Amino acid sequence: MDETLNWLSQHQQMIYIVILSVFLGIEVIGRVPSVLHTPLMSGANAIHGVVIIGAIIVMGKAESENLLALVLGFLAVILGTLNVVGGFVVTDRMLEMFKKKK
Questions:
Q1: pLDDT for res 38
Q2: Please, how many CA atoms are within 13 Å of residue 80, restricted to the half-sphere of its CB?
Q3: ∠ Cα 8 56 62 (to 5°)
Q4: CA angle at residue 8 from 49 to 62, to 5 degrees?
């Protein structure tokens, strides 16, 4: 418990930055017009592709005894992949709405 509190006190500024960036991200995404959702989803897919690559690198560099790094890397790969696939499905469905019907 002391280690956790010590780590939190050492990284307090980074924690504040992450929390503020989450709130800022929610505000920015909430104010995006519906016309821009498709390009925004494409950008999010690209970001999640980078997350997947980073998670694979972390898993590859982690030592076999470091179970936490392996589990977090595996979860990042799985969740990032789900996000990319879901984003492409949603983007494809949105683009279908703009095609002319035959």
A1: 65
A2: 17
A3: 60
A4: 45
